[in-house]
Design a protein that fits this description.
globular
Length: 309
Protein backbone atom coordinates (compact mmCIF):
# COMPACT_ATOMS: atom_id res chain seq x y z
CA UNK A 1 0.00 0.00 0.00
CA UNK A 2 2.84 2.37 0.86
CA UNK A 3 4.47 1.69 -2.50
CA UNK A 4 1.15 2.33 -4.23
CA UNK A 5 0.64 5.60 -2.35
CA UNK A 6 4.17 6.77 -3.08
CA UNK A 7 3.66 5.99 -6.77
CA UNK A 8 0.43 8.00 -6.87
CA UNK A 9 2.13 10.84 -4.99
CA UNK A 10 5.10 10.94 -7.38
CA UNK A 11 2.80 10.85 -10.42
CA UNK A 12 0.74 13.67 -8.96
CA UNK A 13 3.86 15.78 -8.41
CA UNK A 14 5.04 15.12 -11.97
CA UNK A 15 1.56 16.06 -13.25
CA UNK A 16 1.66 19.30 -11.30
CA UNK A 17 4.99 20.02 -12.96
CA UNK A 18 3.34 19.59 -16.37
CA UNK A 19 0.52 21.95 -15.39
CA UNK A 20 2.93 24.52 -13.98
CA UNK A 21 4.90 24.56 -17.22
CA UNK A 22 1.69 25.05 -19.17
CA UNK A 23 0.64 27.82 -16.75
CA UNK A 24 4.05 29.44 -17.25
CA UNK A 25 3.55 29.49 -21.03
CA UNK A 26 0.10 31.00 -20.55
CA UNK A 27 1.19 33.65 -18.04
CA UNK A 28 4.09 34.74 -20.25
CA UNK A 29 1.68 35.04 -23.16
CA UNK A 30 -0.72 37.16 -21.07
CA UNK A 31 2.01 39.27 -19.48
CA UNK A 32 3.73 40.08 -22.75
CA UNK A 33 0.41 41.22 -24.22
CA UNK A 34 -0.44 43.42 -21.26
CA UNK A 35 3.05 44.95 -21.17
CA UNK A 36 2.74 45.88 -24.83
CA UNK A 37 -0.73 47.34 -24.29
CA UNK A 38 0.02 49.26 -21.10
CA UNK A 39 3.62 50.37 -21.53
CA UNK A 40 4.31 50.66 -25.24
CA UNK A 41 0.88 51.53 -26.64
CA UNK A 42 -0.50 53.20 -23.48
CA UNK A 43 -3.85 51.48 -23.48
CA UNK A 44 -5.91 52.44 -20.35
CA UNK A 45 -5.06 50.11 -17.45
CA UNK A 46 -8.73 49.28 -16.81
CA UNK A 47 -9.29 48.00 -20.37
CA UNK A 48 -10.15 44.49 -19.12
CA UNK A 49 -13.01 45.81 -16.95
CA UNK A 50 -14.15 48.42 -19.47
CA UNK A 51 -13.35 47.03 -22.93
CA UNK A 52 -15.94 49.32 -24.51
CA UNK A 53 -13.44 52.18 -24.03
CA UNK A 54 -11.11 50.50 -26.52
CA UNK A 55 -13.53 51.11 -29.39
CA UNK A 56 -12.62 54.83 -29.38
CA UNK A 57 -8.87 54.22 -29.79
CA UNK A 58 -7.63 54.65 -33.39
CA UNK A 59 -6.56 51.42 -35.12
CA UNK A 60 -7.50 49.43 -32.02
CA UNK A 61 -8.33 46.32 -34.06
CA UNK A 62 -4.84 46.17 -35.55
CA UNK A 63 -3.30 46.90 -32.14
CA UNK A 64 -5.24 44.16 -30.33
CA UNK A 65 -4.65 41.60 -33.07
CA UNK A 66 -0.92 42.37 -33.23
CA UNK A 67 -0.50 42.23 -29.45
CA UNK A 68 -2.44 38.99 -29.19
CA UNK A 69 -0.40 37.50 -32.01
CA UNK A 70 2.92 38.46 -30.40
CA UNK A 71 1.83 37.05 -27.03
CA UNK A 72 0.63 33.79 -28.55
CA UNK A 73 3.78 33.39 -30.64
CA UNK A 74 6.01 33.92 -27.62
CA UNK A 75 4.07 31.96 -25.00
CA UNK A 76 2.58 29.11 -27.02
CA UNK A 77 5.03 28.57 -29.87
CA UNK A 78 8.54 29.94 -29.21
CA UNK A 79 8.86 28.93 -25.54
CA UNK A 80 7.29 25.47 -25.99
CA UNK A 81 9.61 24.77 -28.94
CA UNK A 82 12.62 25.85 -26.87
CA UNK A 83 11.43 23.62 -24.02
CA UNK A 84 11.05 20.63 -26.33
CA UNK A 85 14.38 21.29 -28.03
CA UNK A 86 16.49 21.58 -24.88
CA UNK A 87 14.65 19.50 -22.29
CA UNK A 88 12.97 16.66 -24.21
CA UNK A 89 14.99 14.05 -26.05
CA UNK A 90 12.17 11.93 -27.51
CA UNK A 91 9.50 14.55 -28.31
CA UNK A 92 11.45 17.15 -30.23
CA UNK A 93 9.62 19.68 -32.43
CA UNK A 94 10.73 17.69 -35.49
CA UNK A 95 9.17 14.55 -34.02
CA UNK A 96 5.89 16.22 -33.06
CA UNK A 97 5.47 18.01 -36.39
CA UNK A 98 6.48 15.02 -38.49
CA UNK A 99 4.28 13.85 -41.35
CA UNK A 100 2.78 10.37 -41.21
CA UNK A 101 1.58 8.13 -44.08
CA UNK A 102 -1.88 9.04 -45.40
CA UNK A 103 -1.78 12.27 -43.40
CA UNK A 104 -3.74 14.21 -46.03
CA UNK A 105 -6.54 11.64 -45.88
CA UNK A 106 -6.53 11.83 -42.09
CA UNK A 107 -6.81 15.62 -42.17
CA UNK A 108 -9.74 15.65 -44.61
CA UNK A 109 -11.54 12.94 -42.65
CA UNK A 110 -10.95 14.80 -39.38
CA UNK A 111 -12.24 18.09 -40.77
CA UNK A 112 -15.36 16.27 -42.00
CA UNK A 113 -15.79 14.80 -38.50
CA UNK A 114 -15.44 18.27 -36.97
CA UNK A 115 -18.05 19.77 -39.31
CA UNK A 116 -20.41 16.89 -38.55
CA UNK A 117 -20.05 17.65 -34.83
CA UNK A 118 -21.11 21.31 -35.14
CA UNK A 119 -24.87 20.72 -34.51
CA UNK A 120 -24.13 18.72 -31.35
CA UNK A 121 -21.64 21.37 -30.18
CA UNK A 122 -24.24 24.10 -30.74
CA UNK A 123 -26.79 22.22 -28.64
CA UNK A 124 -24.17 21.74 -25.92
CA UNK A 125 -23.46 25.48 -25.99
CA UNK A 126 -27.16 26.21 -25.49
CA UNK A 127 -27.26 23.72 -22.61
CA UNK A 128 -24.12 25.25 -21.09
CA UNK A 129 -25.81 28.67 -21.03
CA UNK A 130 -28.59 27.31 -18.83
CA UNK A 131 -26.16 26.15 -16.12
CA UNK A 132 -25.76 28.26 -13.02
CA UNK A 133 -23.55 27.98 -9.97
CA UNK A 134 -25.09 27.63 -6.49
CA UNK A 135 -25.71 30.77 -4.42
CA UNK A 136 -22.60 30.05 -2.39
CA UNK A 137 -20.53 30.66 -5.53
CA UNK A 138 -22.49 33.67 -6.78
CA UNK A 139 -19.40 35.91 -6.61
CA UNK A 140 -17.55 33.43 -8.82
CA UNK A 141 -20.45 33.41 -11.28
CA UNK A 142 -20.52 37.23 -11.33
CA UNK A 143 -16.79 37.22 -12.12
CA UNK A 144 -17.41 34.73 -14.91
CA UNK A 145 -20.18 36.93 -16.31
CA UNK A 146 -17.89 39.97 -16.34
CA UNK A 147 -15.11 37.96 -17.97
CA UNK A 148 -17.55 36.66 -20.58
CA UNK A 149 -18.81 40.16 -21.40
CA UNK A 150 -15.26 41.48 -21.60
CA UNK A 151 -14.28 38.67 -23.99
CA UNK A 152 -17.36 39.34 -26.13
CA UNK A 153 -16.53 43.05 -26.33
CA UNK A 154 -12.92 42.36 -27.34
CA UNK A 155 -14.06 39.78 -29.90
CA UNK A 156 -16.57 42.25 -31.31
CA UNK A 157 -13.75 44.75 -31.87
CA UNK A 158 -11.61 42.12 -33.61
CA UNK A 159 -14.29 40.84 -36.00
CA UNK A 160 -15.40 44.25 -37.31
CA UNK A 161 -13.12 44.27 -40.33
CA UNK A 162 -12.40 47.51 -42.16
CA UNK A 163 -10.56 46.07 -45.16
CA UNK A 164 -9.16 42.77 -46.47
CA UNK A 165 -5.78 43.37 -44.78
CA UNK A 166 -7.36 43.70 -41.34
CA UNK A 167 -9.31 40.51 -41.99
CA UNK A 168 -6.10 38.66 -42.94
CA UNK A 169 -4.36 39.93 -39.80
CA UNK A 170 -7.20 38.82 -37.51
CA UNK A 171 -7.50 35.54 -39.41
CA UNK A 172 -3.82 34.84 -38.80
CA UNK A 173 -4.02 35.74 -35.12
CA UNK A 174 -7.31 33.96 -34.34
CA UNK A 175 -7.23 30.96 -36.68
CA UNK A 176 -3.66 30.09 -37.66
CA UNK A 177 -1.45 30.92 -34.67
CA UNK A 178 -3.75 29.46 -31.95
CA UNK A 179 -4.30 26.29 -33.97
CA UNK A 180 -0.56 25.63 -34.05
CA UNK A 181 0.33 26.98 -30.61
CA UNK A 182 -2.53 25.57 -28.55
CA UNK A 183 -2.30 22.13 -30.13
CA UNK A 184 1.47 22.12 -29.61
CA UNK A 185 0.99 22.88 -25.89
CA UNK A 186 -2.18 20.94 -25.01
CA UNK A 187 -1.86 17.89 -27.23
CA UNK A 188 1.86 17.88 -28.05
CA UNK A 189 3.13 18.61 -24.53
CA UNK A 190 0.43 18.33 -21.83
CA UNK A 191 -1.41 15.32 -23.24
CA UNK A 192 1.76 13.45 -24.20
CA UNK A 193 3.44 14.04 -20.85
CA UNK A 194 0.34 13.08 -18.82
CA UNK A 195 0.01 9.92 -20.91
CA UNK A 196 3.59 8.93 -20.04
CA UNK A 197 3.16 9.77 -16.36
CA UNK A 198 -0.12 7.90 -15.78
CA UNK A 199 0.13 5.37 -18.63
CA UNK A 200 -3.50 6.17 -19.42
CA UNK A 201 -4.27 7.99 -22.65
CA UNK A 202 -7.94 8.52 -21.76
CA UNK A 203 -7.07 10.30 -18.51
CA UNK A 204 -4.54 12.43 -20.38
CA UNK A 205 -6.99 13.32 -23.16
CA UNK A 206 -9.81 14.34 -20.81
CA UNK A 207 -7.51 16.23 -18.46
CA UNK A 208 -5.86 18.19 -21.26
CA UNK A 209 -9.32 18.86 -22.75
CA UNK A 210 -10.50 20.23 -19.40
CA UNK A 211 -7.46 22.49 -19.05
CA UNK A 212 -7.75 23.57 -22.69
CA UNK A 213 -11.27 24.84 -22.02
CA UNK A 214 -10.50 26.26 -18.59
CA UNK A 215 -7.70 28.59 -19.72
CA UNK A 216 -10.09 30.35 -22.13
CA UNK A 217 -11.96 31.65 -19.04
CA UNK A 218 -15.35 31.54 -20.76
CA UNK A 219 -17.70 29.59 -18.50
CA UNK A 220 -20.70 29.67 -20.83
CA UNK A 221 -18.79 27.82 -23.52
CA UNK A 222 -16.84 25.57 -21.18
CA UNK A 223 -18.52 22.20 -21.90
CA UNK A 224 -18.53 22.33 -25.73
CA UNK A 225 -14.97 23.68 -25.80
CA UNK A 226 -13.78 20.93 -23.46
CA UNK A 227 -15.40 18.25 -25.61
CA UNK A 228 -13.83 19.75 -28.72
CA UNK A 229 -10.48 19.50 -26.96
CA UNK A 230 -11.24 15.86 -26.12
CA UNK A 231 -12.14 15.22 -29.76
CA UNK A 232 -8.85 16.80 -30.87
CA UNK A 233 -7.02 14.61 -28.35
CA UNK A 234 -8.51 11.35 -29.55
CA UNK A 235 -7.94 12.23 -33.21
CA UNK A 236 -4.29 12.95 -32.35
CA UNK A 237 -3.91 9.58 -30.61
CA UNK A 238 -5.65 7.65 -33.39
CA UNK A 239 -3.70 9.26 -36.25
CA UNK A 240 -0.33 9.85 -34.51
CA UNK A 241 -0.18 13.21 -36.27
CA UNK A 242 -0.27 16.59 -34.52
CA UNK A 243 -1.22 18.15 -37.84
CA UNK A 244 -4.65 16.52 -37.57
CA UNK A 245 -5.81 18.42 -34.43
CA UNK A 246 -4.06 21.52 -35.77
CA UNK A 247 -6.17 21.29 -38.96
CA UNK A 248 -9.35 20.67 -36.93
CA UNK A 249 -8.59 23.57 -34.57
CA UNK A 250 -7.83 25.86 -37.51
CA UNK A 251 -11.06 24.87 -39.27
CA UNK A 252 -13.13 25.51 -36.15
CA UNK A 253 -11.65 28.97 -35.57
CA UNK A 254 -11.67 29.89 -39.26
CA UNK A 255 -15.34 28.97 -39.67
CA UNK A 256 -16.20 31.04 -36.60
CA UNK A 257 -14.36 34.07 -38.01
CA UNK A 258 -15.81 33.74 -41.49
CA UNK A 259 -19.35 33.41 -40.15
CA UNK A 260 -18.79 36.40 -37.85
CA UNK A 261 -17.39 38.42 -40.75
CA UNK A 262 -19.97 37.71 -43.42
CA UNK A 263 -23.12 36.66 -41.56
CA UNK A 264 -23.30 39.18 -38.71
CA UNK A 265 -26.95 40.08 -39.33
CA UNK A 266 -28.02 36.44 -39.44
CA UNK A 267 -26.18 35.76 -36.18
CA UNK A 268 -27.83 38.75 -34.50
CA UNK A 269 -31.28 37.59 -35.58
CA UNK A 270 -30.54 34.06 -34.39
CA UNK A 271 -29.38 35.29 -30.98
CA UNK A 272 -32.65 37.22 -30.59
CA UNK A 273 -34.74 34.25 -31.65
CA UNK A 274 -36.64 32.84 -28.66
CA UNK A 275 -36.62 29.39 -30.24
CA UNK A 276 -32.81 29.18 -29.92
CA UNK A 277 -32.94 27.04 -26.77
CA UNK A 278 -31.60 23.65 -25.83
CA UNK A 279 -33.77 20.85 -27.23
CA UNK A 280 -33.16 17.39 -25.79
CA UNK A 281 -34.65 15.68 -28.86
CA UNK A 282 -32.27 17.40 -31.27
CA UNK A 283 -29.39 16.86 -28.87
CA UNK A 284 -29.97 13.09 -28.68
CA UNK A 285 -30.36 12.88 -32.46
CA UNK A 286 -27.14 14.83 -33.01
CA UNK A 287 -25.26 12.68 -30.49
CA UNK A 288 -26.40 9.49 -32.23
CA UNK A 289 -25.25 10.87 -35.58
CA UNK A 290 -21.96 11.98 -34.03
CA UNK A 291 -21.32 8.53 -32.55
CA UNK A 292 -21.91 6.98 -35.97
CA UNK A 293 -19.48 9.46 -37.57
CA UNK A 294 -16.90 8.73 -34.87
CA UNK A 295 -17.21 4.99 -35.44
CA UNK A 296 -16.85 5.37 -39.22
CA UNK A 297 -13.93 7.76 -38.74
CA UNK A 298 -12.14 5.41 -36.35
CA UNK A 299 -12.60 2.41 -38.67
CA UNK A 300 -11.38 4.47 -41.63
CA UNK A 301 -8.21 5.52 -39.78
CA UNK A 302 -7.50 1.99 -38.60
CA UNK A 303 -8.06 0.54 -42.08
CA UNK A 304 -5.65 3.07 -43.60
CA UNK A 305 -3.04 2.15 -41.00
CA UNK A 306 -3.51 -1.59 -41.64
CA UNK A 307 -3.08 -1.03 -45.38
CA UNK A 308 0.24 0.75 -44.73
CA UNK A 309 1.69 -2.17 -42.76
Amino acid sequence: MNTFNSTIFSKTILSLGVLLRMAGFFLIMQASGEILLLELIHIPSDFANHPEKLAFIPNIQVILASVQGVGMLLGFIVLPILYLTYFKSSETPAHLFRCVPKQTWYIFASIALLIASIPAVEQLALLNKTLYLPDLLKSVEDLMNRTEKSAEALTDILVHYHNPLSFLLVFTVIAIIPAIGEELVFRGIVQNELTKIWDNKHFAIWTSGFIFSFIHFQFFGFVPRMLLGVLFGYCYVWTNSLWVPIAMHFTNNALTLIIAAFFKDSLLNASENENAVFDIRFFIAYIVVQVIFLFVYYKFIRQQQVNDQ
